[in-house]
Amino acid sequence: MRVSVNESLSIPIHVQLKEQIKTFIHEGVYPPNEALPSASELAGFLRINRDTVQTAYAELELDGYIYSKPGIGVYVHADPPHETERIREAHEWEGEEAAHAKPVVLFVECNVPQAQEYAVELEKATGYVVKPCLIKDLELLGSSIQSGYYDLIVTTFLHVEEVQTIIARLCGENEPKVIACLPESSLQSIKRLQELPAGSKVGIAGTTWLGADNFRQSIVDAGLAHVELLIGSLEYPASLDAIIEAKPDLIVSTSIVTPYLQRLSRFTPIMIEDRCLSAQSVHYIQHYVESKLGIADSLNN
Fold first, then answer.
1. What is the rounded distance in angstroms from the CA atom of residue 206 to the CA atom of residue 231?
2. Which homologous superfamily is 96-182+277-300 in?
């Protein structure tokens, strides 16, 4: 029988963002003195409130991870703090999982392929039971969410505000935690697109039209107006043919679509954008879930 732990405070989105950026810095995704996306660009790309990113950046600067140059940008500190304790603790919990029933996690996304891919990836990485769910189907799972069946609800920053709103409406004060993942590819995509010259043509080739359009909207919301966007998906192969015919300077594609594009053109640069879960996000999820199970055990004892 699952123990319901009433946790009155949700994990603020800016805290989740801050902690995952810290780990990206420690693992060299963003090396010392490297420019980070501006608050507006990152907020737009992830589709979260700009104040959320500014708060995360302000706390990172206070902690010595980044520094800002007024009117220029935000950069990784030349010598950021060494923080290994949080990751070490997450690894320590991994060996204790056998003492518990397998945690159950709900992974929420906007389209079926992405929800399934993320769920399988997280299940393999953690050993948890991870069930995929579409945002539009959340209300159908209202009773199981309210009963505490799920130890955690996970989504991406792209959807976290929407998912939190739905969960709050369904569960009220007993709402479960919602954690957002920051795929490494999100930051790398912004960086690559920023480097393109003005007027560059960028093809967006998605497995589904919805996924491709979501990525297009993220680029638009990030304010990267210097590039011309072309969109296509494997659901409509003619749209992919049209992208190739337009001779883009870069195509951002999922790995599923890439072989099709390469058959059409061997020379067009392709950047794989699978939005796979980063190791940082997986550790963050593990640390929270196992800590929660530890709290439940102490209450039972």
1. 8
2. Response regulator (3.40.50.2300)
